[in-house]
Amino acid sequence: MVYQVGEIKVKHLRKYIRSILKEEKKVLGYIKPDSAFFTLGEWEYFCNKMLELQKQGHDTRGGGISLNSEIVSLVTQYFDFQLNTEVNRYDLLTYKNVMDFIEDFVNHRFWGLEKEFGHYFPDISKLRIAYFYSRGDIEPYALIDDEFTNQLYGSTYNPKSLMHYTTEKHALNMVKVIENNQNSYDISSFTVAERPFFRKESNYIVEFIGNVRAGFRSDIKSFATSSGRRAVNLYRLEYPGKDINNICYELDSCDGEIRTSLWNEYIATPIKVLNIRKIN
């Protein structure tokens, strides 16, 4: 394969930036910014403004090489993280990919969002939604904030006995964080598992009381956010069979058989550690 000089420079620049991000990852992980989430009303404002500019002959088609200043401002406000962090983090995601997604989102995807996902929630218009890169595509995520939890359970205080796979170091840190009243972050947990966890280094189980933010019948793809809350992938809200979806609308409705033969999942804030045990 032959590379042009410009391609070589870009390749090395991306490699350098990615090395820095790996260092940050050791501390922050793949944390998504709270500022990337918007309500449907805010997304509609963005789309309508972009459509107005498109009518004037300005859009993000083809990567938006020569962008109108107002488009630059709007795109920076709504997709800054995707363009300035995720593009540099993932080899398969390019600037053009994101800009092409924005065009498709403005013209088509946004207008079907409520129809596609609205039936899962009492009022999806009050939820905050963002789009992040995952497994080769840019996918929708909903922030599991107080509004999300209230819509599911009618309360933001939902204590439940749970379990969490982790390392010994992180298990002990979990105890320390709770003792210091710094437990403002949510973690992924479970009550039923039908196969071993996929990370071999996570060979400890923490049994704890957690304040459930949301429960799911099978594993749900979620990300940590800068607010301490997690965000759930909207594409994983369905479930095998045609009688129920993946959301647990009652706290105990997900503790039985798992049709995916994996594990159920609760997003919860740790309140009290009950036990720590090694599993292998």
Q: Please tally the β strands and state the result.
A: 8
- Helical content band: 25-40%
How would you characterize the largest beta sheet? 4 strands, antiparallel
Strand order, main sheet: write it out. 1-2-7-6
* Helix and strand composition category: alpha+beta
Mean pLDDT equals: 88
Q: How many helices in DSSP terms? A: 7
Order of helices and strands: HHHHHEEHEHEEEEE
Regions with little confidence, pLDDT below 50 for 5+ residues: 1-11, 16-29
Taken as a percent bin, the fraction of beta residues is 15-25%
The N- to C-terminal Cα distance equals 46 Å
The total number of structural domains is 2
Cα-atom radius of gyration: 21 Å
- Shape label: globular
Describe the protein:
The chain is α+β, with helices and mostly antiparallel strands and 280 residues long. It has two domains: 113 residues, no CATH class; 131 residues, no CATH class. Helices cover 35% and strands 21% of the residues. It is built from seven helices and eight strands. Strands 1-2-7-6 form a four-stranded antiparallel β-sheet. It has a four-stranded antiparallel β-sheet with strand order 3-5-8-4. The longest helix is centred in the N-terminal third of the chain and has 24 residues. The N terminus is likely disordered.
